[in-house]
Design goal:
The protein is mainly alpha-helical. Helices cover 81% and strands 0% of the residues. The N and C termini lie far apart (71 Å).
């Protein structure tokens, strides 16, 4: 009995490891790096636009106001979830794609930075989708295998316990059954959470930034 209980507990621990790994991804580090790079680009674009607003030449100041305005209109913040940042930057990029804004960005030397920010946003979205797909696959594969192993061992343990309870009921056996039930309850909870994780939207990545001065 002790051996079966140990095997079951080890199986539950392996499932626990699989569950925790299913909530992570090797792609996360790459996504974070690209998000940090985009943050720097968008910060420079926004700050340059603010500085141009203060230039004495009215035409230059007007360019600065036009380029800065989409940041205000779409409330772009670098401390939001990635999905929000992606969507808002795409909105800004659509505005910047208009002919008048293209001319402004070129005059201000920002056109190349906007292009790089657009490219990074597309790459971040692609990687987020890939991470979500891989996470779902991991849940279906590794976690399903670990769960099946646990259930097989649990069936053996229950069969053994039922036989002992009939022959020789005892408090120790009841405590053992409770101990095993706790393990299995945890496994079931993680399994259900894992299924939700595999199907859920990926929007929890947040990048802290230094506070910016209000206009």
């Amino acid at each position: 009995m002790a051996r079966l209980r140990t095997l079951l507990h080890q199986s539950v621990l392996r499932y626990d490891v699989a569950y925790k790994q299913s909530t992570k991804s090797f792609l996360t580090e790459t996504i974070d790096a690209k998000d940090t790079a985009r943050d720097k680009l968008t910060m420079v674009i926004e700050w340059v636009a603010r500085y141009w607003m203060k230039l004495p030449d009215e035409d230059d100041a007007l360019r600065g106001r036009r380029v800065y305005q989409p940041f205000k209109d779409f409330d772009y913040r670098r401390d939001e979830a990635l999905m929000a940042q992606n969507a808002k930057w795409q909105n800004i990029a659509q505005v910047y794609a208009q002919a008048a804004y293209v001319a402004d960005l070129q005059a201000m030397g920002l056109a190349a930075l906007v292009t790089k920010a657009n490219t990074l946003t597309a790459e971040i979205q692609q990687l987020m989708q890939q991470r979500q797909t891989e996470g779902a696959s991991y849940v279906v594969g590794e976690m399903k295998a670990a769960r099946a192993e646990s259930e097989n061992l649990l069936a053996q343990v229950i069969q053994y316990l039922n036989a002992l309870l009939v022959v020789s009921p005892s408090e120790a056996l009841e405590q053992t059954a409770q101990y095993i039930q706790q393990d299995m309850n945890k496994t079931e909870q993680q399994y259900q959470q894992g299924r939700k994780h595999g199907k859920g939207e990926d929007g929890g990545d947040v990048t802290p930034v230094e506070p910016e001065a209000a206009e």
